[in-house]
Amino acid sequence: MESQAFQKVYTKLTNITKATVTLKAKEIGYDEIASVNGKLAQVVKITGDDVTLQIFEGTEGIPTNAHVSFFGKPPQLKVSDELAGRFFNAYGDPIDGGPEIQGEVRDIGSPSVNPVRRKQPSNLIATGIAGIDLNNTLVSGQKIPFFADPDQPYNQVMAMVALRAKADKIILGGMGLTNDDYLYFKNVFDNAGALDRIVSFVNTTENPPVERLLVPDMALTAAEYFAVDKNESVLVLLTDMTLYADALSIVSNRMDQIPSKDSMPGSLYSDLAKIYEKAVQFPSGGSITIIAVTTLSGGDITHAIPDNTGYITEGQLFLRRDSDIGKVIVDPFRSLSRLKQLVIGKQTREDHPQVMNSAIRLFADAANARTKLENGFDLTDYDERTLKFAKEYSDQILAIDVNVDTDTMLDITWELFGKHFKKAEVAIRENLVEKYWKS
Amino acid sequence: MEKDNKTTGKVVGIVSNLVMVEVDGPVAQNEICFISLGNESLMAEVIKVVGKVAYVQVFESTRGLKTGSKVEFQGHLLEVTLGPGILSRNYDGLQNDLDKMEGIFLKRGEYTDPLNREKKWAFKPIAKVGDEVQAGDWLGEVNENDQPHKIMVPFKMKGSFKIKEIVPEGEYIVDHNIAVVEDEDGAETRLTMVQKWPVKLAVGSYKEKPRPFKLLETGVRCMDTLNPITEGGTGFIPGPFGTGKTVLQHAISKQAEADIVIIAACGERANEVVEVFTEFPELEDPRTGKKLIERTIIIANTSNMPVAAREASVYTAMTIGEYYRAMGLKVLLMADSTSRWAQALREMSNRLEELPGPDAFPMDLSAVISNFYSRAGFVYLNNGSTGSITFIGTVSPAGGNLKEPVTESTRKAARCFYGLSQARADSKRYPAIDPIDSYSKYLEYPEVQENLARNVGDSWLNEVNKAKDVLLRGKEAMEQINILGDDGVPIGFHETFWKSELIDFVILQQDAFDKIDSSTPMKRQQYMLSKVLDVVDSSFAFNHFEDVSSFFKEVINEFKQMNYSEFDSDNFKQHEEALEKLLKTQAN
User: Fold this and answer.
1) Which ranges carry the ATPase F1/V1/A1 complex alpha/beta subunit nucleotide-binding domain (chain B) (predicted)?
2) How many CA atoms lie within 13 A of B444 on its CB side?
3) N or C, where is chain A less crowded by C-beta within 10 Å?
């Protein structure tokens, strides 16, 4: 972003905070970008002639006589097929040593899709992971986060989902990614031979936090290009949205805004919704599916970030270590895919919905039995059977290392039903029981 | 507040969608203005005035807006346009017709006409020349999707008028002069089929607003049976995410016995609105045999659409509801979710740097919510006909905490409380309405009790209360069992618990995705409840506590098969017989 000859250069800052600077300037557009001593900045407030700029890199070392020039445009990204296979920083500049991208210039953070122009998501995304495909089926055009503790293997599961999901393009938006995780993604995609369909925008922990605010918009502008202009199915991976929200709170704090719950800005819901709602199925066939990660602190989902996210996204996936089998499973109780109703029993076998519900109910009974056991009570015969069922169900269905197709998952579950229960205990509609019961 | 010369101004400050405008003349609170930005003009509403500076909230993105931009004030508040052709339209929060907008993406500054100005409507006069009329009185009628759409004297007109001219029966466009009325001073006003009304003010053109007394059937058993809502009643559904708020709301809007259904998707997921767009044109209205979409209006201001328009959207929906109520129709208004609306208020209050109330919400939140809920209700119109707006709002409590300000304020305003419980949702007991915490104040109204006795049955209320008692006793028994262990309590405790489970599984739980089970008419609800209570009243002989659960599981299974079968069908009767046989095996 070179400054141009005719641009007016300002050299007097009136105010500097940790994230913002203020100066006197005229004819400045809201949201436009500027350069402050070579650092990229964006207009966040105008009062009379006072213009407040948010400096993405932070204001360290900025003097009151810094050179400020305005670009007269919002942050932009050049889009073309050349994006594929490339790695960029939060500003959309290449970081892989490759050449600059040639292409059409687009504003990032563009308007939303007219709801009447959307199509109802209806294409199942198969991942082979039964905890997802059977109980929490994903659909193209969906947005869903992993709610995970920082020590859980969410990035691994996400990479696995991304590679198996058969998307035309995968766009990685990394926010506050550790360098190790960044290299992990790079290696996994490379080894799978998938690098040519992957675009990455990465802000690592080495970069300033406020820069992260640009990453989702950059990633989604690229996604919209492939989904709208090229009618491709695009999968966007955003990790970690908690760090994005933290950056929002830093900025709002510096701007003296009154914080709402958990010191987050009052606009957190709208800010997150603007990103997640970019997930869409277009009638022309293109789609944007968003899989994100929201890390939790101490598993607390009532914190403002996971809480607001849960209200925006179409479900959430929880990972949990099952001590009975010593593996990580997709938690069947707390995980939910809201869009699964659109495909299960329609694109999958007719018995899918009822089998799913009964299995989870029986799994819940097992959890109750376990509580009883822990409290030192005798178990009934039914309790014993649910516990046996739960262990096998965990191992053969819920574990994240399972990789089978949906019909097989259903067959396995029927087998477990037949092995441990009576028909009445399973309580599935009669005609399905007749057809699929395995004794 | 109509003005001859429009006040103008220029932009002097911008913080996100809050813009400060220096004005050269009078401006009113909540007055609408347009800010020019290149070729576009952005709609905004005055929310505060300090000296010569008006603070306006812009209904669009302010990206690229500069100080010095010209602003023109319109001399009126935010208004909706009311006339034939609103049904089955999809509007945004400002009543722009979304289908008329071009392109895939919403364009800033694009405002579309909510009505079709070319379509001709078959108008039949109701009033005649010489009639004395006042605001809200019916002049004539057109057929809008088979609903009698009344053309009324505009709500804004004050006083009494005499009809001087009215057009004969015929086909007219909405802007045709269909009548001329004359006030007491002889001043004439020409009327068309179109009128405007400011959304933030309640339409008051009715005679009387009694307490609601009639049951509104929704087909959802745990509402109709346990905690019914009335025609003109208010209710709210709070629940943490993932507890099935939206599925429940959709079920109610599909099945409820209403003439008009208005769905205000306020700051919620776009795909949920798309679901309505996709399903309602396909689904049949069980009562009329027509498509559901024909009686539905959708106000879609999804979470990614501008925040200020989100605030307006619930008012837009309510005003359209009041318009149809004044025609003597039963309107059901669903808002999902009122928390997003409250958050929009919070974002604005925050930008205005107002002193915050609890959780940074504005101090007057409670008053704003009560005021909004009070616009619902059952009314007697001036001509003696009745109309109603039943309002059900969802609340998305932050962190699932029902003590947060929006839930608390709503609890004061709404009469029915359908609390969704995380524990029920986790064990997939849907709809996850908590049977013990939820309530309907209407059950305490003598006029509602009398109405239920007349229309459902004399003993109905007793049965309902009994079912509630059984549920409560079952919960207590379960707690005891959990503390003392299965064999630490008498077998009777297990029986009490399983009797409550029976009600839970058969009456409360309902499969919203099953064709038959999803909607239960009142007659069937009554039949099933008394059937279940018969079992509850029976005494059984059990030798061991394990026999209790296995027996009741079989009973529940037969009942569930009945729920899945067409009422009174062979299949239904078959399972009923099997049930009777099963019950005899354990009879005492």
Assistant:
1) 219-440
2) 5
3) C
